[in-house]
């Protein structure tokens, strides 16, 4: 897909994801960043998945009021990375459009956020390269929930 090949390797998920969150704590010191990882190791392209996870977490941090949570669970033959925030969420009618390159939500707060609208389309590509997908739902905390699944 697009000339990109995977360089999969065994990754200790809890250690790797804790490092991802630590990097964000410096940029978003006022937010509570949580991690719940019930899986020990996974085979994945760490470089590409770091881009995907950082993108999802950074987006969540931009819109969260106080809390962002990353949960990783094994579900049958898939590994799910679930990112929840307590921000304004994503209107249901705009969810599928967010994966289109350069698409940005029309609300005023989104126009003030930095970026070009490419991040989620890149996350989608990374998910597909790993045999998975990305979905948007409503978070139990009222904001957005992004579910990135990859083949396990």
Describe the protein in words.
With about 150 residues, the chain is an alpha+beta fold. It has 4 helices and 7 strands; from the N terminus they run E-H-E-E-H-E-E-H-H-E-E. The protein has helices at about 15-25, 45-65, 110, 120-130, and strands at about 10, 30-35, 40-45, 65-75, 80-85, 135-140, 145-150. The strands form 2 sheets. The protein has a 5-stranded mixed beta sheet with strand order 2-4-5-7-6. A hairpin with a 5-residue loop joins strand 6 and strand 7 (about 145-150). The longest helix is centred in the middle third of the chain and has 18 residues, at about 45-65. The chain starts with 8 loop residues before the first strand and ends with a strand. The model has no long low-confidence stretch (mean pLDDT about 90).
């Amino acid at each position: 897909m697009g000339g990109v090949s995977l360089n999969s390797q065994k990754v200790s998920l809890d250690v790797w994801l804790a490092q991802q969150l630590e990097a964000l704590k410096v940029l978003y010191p006022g937010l509570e960043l949580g991690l719940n990882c019930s899986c020990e190791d996974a085979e994945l392209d760490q470089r590409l998945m770091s881009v995907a996870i950082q993108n999802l977490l950074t987006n969540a941090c931009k819109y969260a009021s106080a809390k962002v949570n990353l949960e990783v669970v094994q579900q049958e033959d898939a590994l799910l990375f679930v990112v929840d925030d307590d921000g304004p969420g994503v209107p249901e009618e705009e969810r599928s459009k967010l994966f289109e390159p350069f698409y940005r939500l029309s609300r005023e707060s989104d126009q003030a956020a930095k970026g070009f609208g490419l991040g989620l389309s890149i996350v989608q590509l990374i998910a597909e390269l790993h045999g998975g997908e990305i979905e948007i739902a409503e978070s139990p905390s009222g904001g957005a929930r992004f579910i990135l699944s990859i083949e396990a």
